[in-house]
Design a protein that fits this description.
mainly alpha, 2 domains, elongated
Protein backbone atom coordinates (compact mmCIF):
# COMPACT_ATOMS: atom_id res chain seq x y z
CA UNK A 1 0.00 0.00 0.00
CA UNK A 2 2.75 2.42 0.97
CA UNK A 3 4.57 1.50 -2.26
CA UNK A 4 1.50 2.46 -4.33
CA UNK A 5 1.29 5.85 -2.62
CA UNK A 6 4.96 6.55 -3.28
CA UNK A 7 4.63 5.43 -6.89
CA UNK A 8 1.48 7.55 -7.39
CA UNK A 9 3.20 10.56 -5.79
CA UNK A 10 6.23 10.14 -8.07
CA UNK A 11 3.96 9.85 -11.10
CA UNK A 12 2.09 13.01 -10.09
CA UNK A 13 5.39 14.90 -9.68
CA UNK A 14 6.58 13.73 -13.11
CA UNK A 15 3.33 14.82 -14.75
CA UNK A 16 3.54 18.23 -13.05
CA UNK A 17 7.11 18.71 -14.31
CA UNK A 18 6.24 17.92 -17.95
CA UNK A 19 4.94 21.41 -18.85
CA UNK A 20 8.10 22.96 -17.39
CA UNK A 21 10.30 20.68 -19.48
CA UNK A 22 8.23 21.43 -22.58
CA UNK A 23 8.55 25.18 -21.96
CA UNK A 24 12.32 24.89 -21.57
CA UNK A 25 12.52 22.96 -24.83
CA UNK A 26 10.92 25.93 -26.62
CA UNK A 27 13.61 28.37 -25.45
CA UNK A 28 16.24 26.97 -27.78
CA UNK A 29 19.40 25.09 -27.29
CA UNK A 30 22.68 24.97 -29.06
CA UNK A 31 22.88 27.47 -31.88
CA UNK A 32 19.28 28.68 -31.78
CA UNK A 33 18.40 32.34 -31.64
CA UNK A 34 18.86 33.36 -28.05
CA UNK A 35 20.20 29.93 -27.18
CA UNK A 36 23.70 28.86 -26.26
CA UNK A 37 25.04 29.33 -29.79
CA UNK A 38 26.55 32.73 -29.12
CA UNK A 39 26.10 33.31 -25.41
CA UNK A 40 27.22 29.83 -24.32
CA UNK A 41 30.44 30.09 -26.31
CA UNK A 42 33.00 31.82 -24.09
CA UNK A 43 34.98 32.92 -27.16
CA UNK A 44 32.08 34.79 -28.76
CA UNK A 45 31.19 36.92 -25.73
CA UNK A 46 27.62 37.35 -26.97
CA UNK A 47 28.64 38.49 -30.47
CA UNK A 48 27.40 36.90 -33.64
CA UNK A 49 29.27 36.51 -36.87
CA UNK A 50 28.06 38.96 -39.49
CA UNK A 51 29.12 37.62 -42.87
CA UNK A 52 27.60 39.34 -45.88
CA UNK A 53 26.73 37.59 -49.09
CA UNK A 54 26.66 39.16 -52.50
CA UNK A 55 23.61 41.36 -52.77
CA UNK A 56 20.90 40.25 -55.15
CA UNK A 57 18.54 42.41 -57.15
CA UNK A 58 17.13 45.34 -55.21
CA UNK A 59 13.97 46.93 -56.59
CA UNK A 60 13.77 50.62 -55.69
CA UNK A 61 10.47 51.82 -54.30
CA UNK A 62 8.37 54.05 -56.51
CA UNK A 63 6.03 56.87 -55.55
CA UNK A 64 2.58 56.31 -57.02
CA UNK A 65 0.84 59.71 -57.00
CA UNK A 66 -2.56 58.17 -57.80
CA UNK A 67 -2.32 56.04 -54.64
CA UNK A 68 -1.29 59.12 -52.69
CA UNK A 69 -4.41 60.97 -53.86
CA UNK A 70 -6.54 58.03 -52.68
CA UNK A 71 -4.70 57.80 -49.34
CA UNK A 72 -5.00 61.54 -48.71
CA UNK A 73 -8.62 61.85 -49.80
CA UNK A 74 -9.69 63.69 -46.66
CA UNK A 75 -6.62 65.97 -46.64
CA UNK A 76 -7.35 66.93 -50.24
CA UNK A 77 -11.07 67.33 -49.57
CA UNK A 78 -12.19 65.14 -52.47
CA UNK A 79 -15.91 64.94 -53.04
CA UNK A 80 -17.57 61.63 -53.89
CA UNK A 81 -17.50 62.24 -57.65
CA UNK A 82 -13.79 63.07 -57.62
CA UNK A 83 -12.98 60.11 -55.39
CA UNK A 84 -14.90 57.69 -57.63
CA UNK A 85 -13.07 59.00 -60.71
CA UNK A 86 -9.66 58.69 -59.02
CA UNK A 87 -10.52 55.14 -57.88
CA UNK A 88 -11.35 54.23 -61.51
CA UNK A 89 -7.96 55.60 -62.60
CA UNK A 90 -6.23 53.70 -59.80
CA UNK A 91 -7.89 50.40 -60.75
CA UNK A 92 -6.96 50.85 -64.39
CA UNK A 93 -3.36 51.68 -63.44
CA UNK A 94 -3.16 48.71 -61.05
CA UNK A 95 -4.36 46.31 -63.76
CA UNK A 96 -1.88 47.76 -66.26
CA UNK A 97 1.05 47.60 -63.82
CA UNK A 98 0.22 44.25 -62.24
CA UNK A 99 2.19 42.11 -64.74
CA UNK A 100 5.16 44.46 -64.49
CA UNK A 101 5.15 44.33 -60.68
CA UNK A 102 4.93 40.52 -60.80
CA UNK A 103 7.96 40.48 -63.10
CA UNK A 104 9.92 42.63 -60.63
CA UNK A 105 8.89 40.44 -57.70
CA UNK A 106 9.97 37.33 -59.57
CA UNK A 107 13.35 38.83 -60.41
CA UNK A 108 13.89 39.91 -56.83
CA UNK A 109 13.06 36.44 -55.50
CA UNK A 110 15.19 34.72 -58.14
CA UNK A 111 18.28 36.80 -57.34
CA UNK A 112 17.83 37.15 -53.59
CA UNK A 113 21.47 37.25 -52.46
CA UNK A 114 22.27 33.59 -53.05
CA UNK A 115 25.79 34.19 -54.20
CA UNK A 116 28.80 32.37 -52.78
CA UNK A 117 29.71 33.06 -49.17
CA UNK A 118 33.43 32.96 -49.88
CA UNK A 119 35.08 34.10 -53.08
CA UNK A 120 33.73 35.76 -56.16
CA UNK A 121 30.54 34.83 -58.00
CA UNK A 122 30.94 32.88 -61.21
CA UNK A 123 30.98 34.62 -64.56
CA UNK A 124 27.60 33.12 -65.40
CA UNK A 125 26.13 34.53 -62.18
CA UNK A 126 27.57 37.99 -62.91
CA UNK A 127 26.18 37.88 -66.46
CA UNK A 128 22.72 36.82 -65.32
CA UNK A 129 22.71 39.51 -62.63
CA UNK A 130 23.64 42.14 -65.23
CA UNK A 131 20.83 40.95 -67.50
CA UNK A 132 18.37 40.98 -64.59
CA UNK A 133 19.40 44.50 -63.58
CA UNK A 134 18.88 45.67 -67.16
CA UNK A 135 15.43 44.06 -67.15
CA UNK A 136 14.64 45.80 -63.85
CA UNK A 137 15.57 49.19 -65.35
CA UNK A 138 13.40 48.56 -68.42
CA UNK A 139 10.47 47.37 -66.31
CA UNK A 140 10.73 50.35 -63.95
CA UNK A 141 10.71 52.61 -67.00
CA UNK A 142 7.53 50.91 -68.23
CA UNK A 143 5.95 51.37 -64.79
CA UNK A 144 6.76 55.07 -64.79
CA UNK A 145 5.47 55.35 -68.36
CA UNK A 146 2.13 54.07 -67.05
CA UNK A 147 2.12 56.09 -63.80
CA UNK A 148 2.83 59.51 -65.35
CA UNK A 149 -0.28 59.73 -67.59
CA UNK A 150 -2.44 58.26 -64.80
CA UNK A 151 -1.15 60.96 -62.44
CA UNK A 152 -1.89 63.67 -65.00
CA UNK A 153 -5.39 62.28 -65.51
CA UNK A 154 -6.03 62.12 -61.74
CA UNK A 155 -4.70 65.65 -61.24
CA UNK A 156 -7.07 66.97 -63.96
CA UNK A 157 -9.98 65.85 -61.79
CA UNK A 158 -8.75 67.99 -58.88
CA UNK A 159 -9.32 71.72 -58.54
CA UNK A 160 -6.32 74.07 -58.37
CA UNK A 161 -5.94 74.02 -54.58
CA UNK A 162 -6.30 70.23 -54.42
CA UNK A 163 -3.79 69.83 -57.25
CA UNK A 164 -1.24 72.04 -55.47
CA UNK A 165 -1.68 70.07 -52.25
CA UNK A 166 -1.39 66.74 -54.13
CA UNK A 167 1.88 67.90 -55.68
CA UNK A 168 3.21 68.83 -52.22
CA UNK A 169 2.24 65.38 -50.91
CA UNK A 170 3.99 63.75 -53.89
CA UNK A 171 7.14 65.86 -53.39
CA UNK A 172 7.21 64.96 -49.70
CA UNK A 173 6.92 61.25 -50.54
CA UNK A 174 9.74 61.60 -53.10
CA UNK A 175 11.97 63.28 -50.51
CA UNK A 176 11.25 60.54 -47.96
CA UNK A 177 12.30 57.90 -50.50
CA UNK A 178 15.48 59.84 -51.25
CA UNK A 179 16.28 59.93 -47.53
CA UNK A 180 15.93 56.16 -47.44
CA UNK A 181 18.37 55.96 -50.32
CA UNK A 182 15.76 54.77 -52.81
CA UNK A 183 15.82 57.08 -55.83
CA UNK A 184 12.62 57.48 -57.77
Amino acid sequence: MQMRVLWAGGLAAAIAAMPLAAARAQVGGMGGVGGLGSIGNPMSRGKTINMKRESGIVIPEQVNPVNLVVLHRSDLGLNDRQFAAVIAIKRSLDSTNSPLERRLDSLQRLFKGKGPLFGEPSAARRDSLAQAQALVRVTLGELLDNIDPARDHAYQILDLNQRAMARQIEEKADKELEKKGTPR
